[in-house]
């Protein structure tokens, strides 16, 4: 997963973390509800990384050149490494990775089924738009996590190179055949709607995660802030569309 153009960086004027965000895992995990929320979060992330690996491997089959195929293979390898980091952490905190991931399989599989690309360019746009929306969502949550979990989550959201790769290929295709832009813009808007709906469904179905988002176990996260969070994600999507040369 990646969102290199939209990564949230701490600034000198940013307030110091408080509450759970200032604690380490050993301290924060004493709260069973917080622990359950983190297990859900890591499970969802792990399944997402595994799905990203599988999708990139499939997309490589559609690549028009050997160079493109190799580039996607490298990105798929990076996603699988992220998956291993997450499952290793789950094991380290005495959780079974498969059990942590299982609740999220159906929703994520349905999202990918409903948004199966029909060609190479749609696959690139899906990876860039869909993965970046997910990364933005997880980065927002990461700001409220304990220091150890936050470091892990941010590490697995590091850019695999897919963002810049997708922008280069899509912009080149539109320059070569401008009418392609209209079709891809419609596709990206559909992806945005499906991705946000899927994120909301996942959170709504998991009590610990939803409680984290509305402030029950996370520091300073209220319902109004949830609304602002989704507004920021939407704004970042608009910027990505511009980077692709598409209208939001």
UniProtKB/TrEMBL annotation:
Domain Ferritin-like: 32-216
Residues covered by region (Disordered): 1-20
Domain of life of the organism encoding this protein: Bacteria
SUPFAM superfamilies in the cross-refs: Ferritin-like (SSF47240)
Stored CDD domains: Ferritin_like
Name of this protein: Ferritin-like fold-containing protein
Organism (species): Streptomyces salyersiae
Pfam assignment, any one: MiaE_2
């Amino acid at each position: 997963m990646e969102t290199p153009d939209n990564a949230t960086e701490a600034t000198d004027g940013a307030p110091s973390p408080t509450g759970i965000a200032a604690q380490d895992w050993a301290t924060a995990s004493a709260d069973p509800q917080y622990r359950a929320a983190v297990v859900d979060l890591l499970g969802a992330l792990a399944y997402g990384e595994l799905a990203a690996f599988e999708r990139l491997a499939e997309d490589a089959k559609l690549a028009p050149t050997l160079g493109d195929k190799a580039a996607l293979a490298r990105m798929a390898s990076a996603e699988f490494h992220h998956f291993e980091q997450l499952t290793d952490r789950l094991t380290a905190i005495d959780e079974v990775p498969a059990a942590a991931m299982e609740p999220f399989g159906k929703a994520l599989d349905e999202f990918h089924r409903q948004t199966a690309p029909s060609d190479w360019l749609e696959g690139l746009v899906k990876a860039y738009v869909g993965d970046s929306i997910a990364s933005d969502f997880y980065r927002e949550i990461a700001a409220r996590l304990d220091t150890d979990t936050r470091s892990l989550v941010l590490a697995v959201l590091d850019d695999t190179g897919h963002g810049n790769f997708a922008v280069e290929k899509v912009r080149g295709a539109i320059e070569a055949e401008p009418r392609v832009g209209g079709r891809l813009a419609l596709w990206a808007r559909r992806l945005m709607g499906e991705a946000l709906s899927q994120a909301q469904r996942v959170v709504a179905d998991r009590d610990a995660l939803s409680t984290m988002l509305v402030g029950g176990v996370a520091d300073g996260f209220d319902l109004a802030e949830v609304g602002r969070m989704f507004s920021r994600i939407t704004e970042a999507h608009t910027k990505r569309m511009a980077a692709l040369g598409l209208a939001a």
